[in-house]
Amino acid sequence: MSVDPEAVEATASVAAAVTAADPSASPRGHERRRLARFVARRVLTGILTLFVASILIFAATDLLPGSPASNALGKFATEPEIAALNRKLGYDHPLPVRYLNWLGGVLHGDLGNSAIGVAQGSGSAPIWPLIRDRLFNTLTLAITTAILLVPISLLLGAYAALRVNRPADHAISTTTLALIALPEFVVGTLLILLFFTVLHWLQPVSLIPPGTPAVAHPNLLVLPVLTLLATSVAWTTRLVRAGMVEVLDSDFVQTARLQGLREPLVVRRYAMRNALAPSVQVFAVSIQALFGGVIVTEVVFSYPGLGKELVDAVLIHDTPLVQSIALLIATFYILVNVVADIVVVLLIPKLRTQV
Q1: How many domains does the structure of the chain reveal?
Q2: Average pLDDT over residues 34-44
Q3: Nearest alpha carbon to residue 131 among 304, 353, 258
Q4: What is the pTM of this model?
Q5: Which neighbouring-strand residues pair with 113?
Q6: In this structure, are 87 and 191 located in the same domain?
Q7: What is the pLDDT of residue 270?
Q8: How far is Cα 291 from Cα 138, in angstroms, rounded to an integer?
Q9: Measured in Å, how far apart are the chain's first and last C-alpha atoms?
Q10: Is the Cβ–Cβ distance between 191 and 227 less than 8 Å?
Q11: Distances, alpha carbon 2 to alpha carbons 5, 7, 11, 236, in Å
C-alpha cells in the first residue's frame, strides 16, 4: 500500500500546530502534568498521614495514668483544685471535643498551655515559647549532622566500592558494622571518655545558655554531632557501597570503560549518578532516624533540645507538652519522607512515566 507524502506532511503540520497552540499536548507537557499530579497526591497523602498521627498521639497520651491536672498539682492536691485546673486546661470536655479544640488551635498556631506552667499559678503558659529555642537547637543539631552525613557516606561508600574485597574495603566494612551494633548512648559515653577524660579537649555536657542559639557555641556541638554521625554514617555507608558495587558491575559502566573513558569520569558521570537516586531514600530514612538518635544524644550530653524536653515532659507527666512535641516530630518525619519521594522521581526520569 502506497503512502501519500503530502498526507504525511499535512498530518505532521497539524500535530506541530496543535503542540504549538497547546504546549501541554507535547510529551514534555504530559510529563509535567503527571509530575504535578504525583506531587499533589504525595502532599495530600502526607497531610492525611499527619492527621491520623495526630489522632494517635492525642489518644495515646490521653491513656497515660492520671489527669494532667492531678499530675501537675501533685498527690497533695484537693479535688476542687484538680477540677479547677482541668477546666483551665479544657480537660472537663469529652475526648473528641478536646481533640477538635486542640487540632483547631494547632491549625491556628496555638499549641496550647503547659499543664505544669498553669499549675504553678502563671494563669497561662503557652507551649510554643517554651519549646521554640529548643526546637531551633534540635534542628541545628540534626541539620548539621545531615549536612555532614551525605558527603561522608558517599565518599566512604564509593571508596569502599572502588576497592571491593581489598584491605580498605574490609576496614570500612568492619568499622561500620561495629558502629551499627553500638547504640547512641554507648557511642556518646566512649566519645566523652576519649575527648574529655583522656584528651581534655571538649566538655562532657552541652550546657548552652538560655536565649542563645546553639550555633553560637560550636564547641558544644562537636560531641553530639560526632555521636549521631558515628551511628548514621555507618549504616548509610554500607548501603551506598552496596549500591555502588552493583552499578559498577552494570553493562553501561563496563561499556563506558571499554570506550576508553577515565575511571574518575566513569565514576562521576555514570556510576555515582545512577547510585545516587536509590540512595536518596536511604538518606531520607537516616535523617528520619536522626530524631530518634537525637532524643538519646540530647539526654546523654544534657543538650537543651526538643528531645530532652520531650523526656522531661514525660517524666513530669505534662501531657499537653508531650502532645505538642510528638506532633512536631511526626511532622518532621512525614515531611522528610514526602520530599524524598519527590526527589527520587526527579532524579530518575523513567519513574516519571509510572507516577
Answers
A1: 2
A2: 87
A3: 304
A4: 0.77
A5: 126
A6: no
A7: 67
A8: 9
A9: 40
A10: yes
A11: 9, 11, 16, 61
Residues composing the chain: 355
One domain for residues 251 and 116? no
Note whether 252 and 266 are within 8 A (CB): no
Query: What pLDDT does 355 receive?
Result: 59
Give which of 344, 290, 317 is closest to 119, Cα–Cα.
317
SS (H, E, C) 167-189: HHHHHHHHHHHHHHCCCHHHHHH
Q: Which three cell numbers stand for residue 232?
A: 548514621
Residue 33 and residue 24 in contact, taking contact as beta carbons nearer than 8 Å: yes
Q: Kindly list the distances between the CA atom of residue 141 and the CA atoms of 204, 221, 233, 291, 324, in Å, as whole numbers in the listed order.
A: 16, 7, 15, 10, 20
Number of alpha carbons in the 13 Å side-chain half-sphere of residue 304:
17
Q: Work out the pLDDT band at 38, boundaries 50, 70, 90.
A: confident
| Residue the block writes with cell 540530647 | 298
What would the mean pLDDT of 174-194 be, rounded to a whole number? Answer: 89
> Domain range holding 227?
130-315
Mean pLDDT of all residues in 58-71: 79
pLDDT for 203 equals 86
Alpha helices for the chain (secondary structure H): 5-21, 27-62, 68-73, 79-89, 95-107, 115-117, 127-162, 167-180, 184-192, 222-248, 251-258, 263-266, 272-300, 306-315, 319-347
- The answer on 173 and 151 residing in a single domain is yes
Whether 245 and 309 map to the same domain: the answer is: yes
Q: How many beta carbons lie within 10 A of that of residue 308, not counting itself?
A: 23
Cell readout for 52 is 491520623
Question: 65-74, 151-160, 161-170: which has the minimum mean pLDDT?
Answer: 65-74
Same domain, 141 and 115: no
3-state secondary structure of 63: coil
Is the distance from CB of 33 to CB of 279 less than 8 angstroms? no
Average pLDDT over residues 160-175: 89
HSE of 179 in the Cβ direction (CA atoms, 13 Å)? Answer: 21
Look at residue 222 and give its three-state secondary structure.
Answer: helix
